[in-house]
Amino acid sequence: MKTRDYEKEKYAHETDHTKPFKYDPGLENGLKVLHKEIPLKVHSYQHDMLTMIKIAKEFDFNLTLDHALGAGDFADEIVESKAAVIYGPIGCCIFPGELCKIDIDCLVTLDQRGVCCAIMTDGPCLFPEYMVVQAGEVVRFGGNHYDVMKMITINPAKIIGCDQRIGSLEPGKDADLVIYQKTPALDTDAQTCYTIIDGKIVYQR
């Protein structure tokens, strides 16, 4: 509601500069959410997800459920909402309360049902270099390795609205590349052969 009020004040000021208005960068981002220019990213576990899905429906904005541990219990609601899921960290400790359930297999189910899913390390909780290891865990829980690799490449790009520029190998896109001698997230002994950044080889095995 605060963002809605801010939008009204901003519009009133634009049409009549004598009316008071104070610029707020935080609420400007709120306007981008309401106008569906960016999704609202929500740190959520368990029943938090249902609450945010309800709010997103009421105010008609796009949503990403970040962490989303326990999402398997609310698969139907998530599918219906069309919210994106950024799951993880995979491999974190289980604690009482909101961290009481780590349901890695839910990523497989949600992906198969059309939800745009991605994987997070929640750095510095887990280091970014564990990303491929976490993807391998999803494969171990039944994910197709090709679909799981999308969860750390094109799917995150789609979620943030940058898939026209990054996330896949296509003419005209930007890409830093890692080339393995085997299939990452599938072969546990896959090792990096080359790393290419800005078109230059910065690492060679």
List the helices and strands and how they pair.
Blueprint: H1 2-15, H2 25-34, E1 40-45, H3 48-59, E2 63-69, H4 75-81, E3 84-87, H5 105-112, E4 117-119, H6 131-140, H7 145-150, H8 154-159, E5 177-180, E6 192-197, E7 200-204
Parallel strand pairs: 1-2, 2-3, 3-4
Antiparallel strand pairs: 5-6, 6-7
Helix pairs in contact: 1-2
Report on this structure.
The mean pLDDT is 92. The strands form two sheets. Strands 1-2-3-4 form a four-stranded parallel sheet. The chain is 36% helix and 17% strand. It contains eight helices and seven strands; from the N terminus they run H-H-E-H-E-H-E-H-E-H-H-H-E-E-E. It is globular, with a radius of gyration of 20 Å. The protein folds into three domains: 1-37, no CATH class; 39-168, Metal-dependent hydrolases (TIM Barrel, Alpha-Beta Barrel); 175-205, no CATH class.
- CATH top-level class of the largest domain: Alpha Beta
Largest sheet entry: 4 strands, parallel
Fraction in beta strands: 15-25%
Tally of contiguous helical segments: 8
Distance between the termini: 55 Å
Provide the gyration radius in Å. 20 Å
Number of strands: 7
Q: Oligomerization state of this entry?
A: single chain
Indicate the percent of residues in helices. 25-40%
Secondary structure class reads alpha/beta
Q: Name the average pLDDT.
A: 92
Q: Structurally, how many domains make up the residues?
A: 3
Q: Which stretches are poorly predicted, pLDDT < 50 over at least 5 residues?
A: none
User: Going across the major beta sheet, what is the strand order?
Assistant: 1-2-3-4
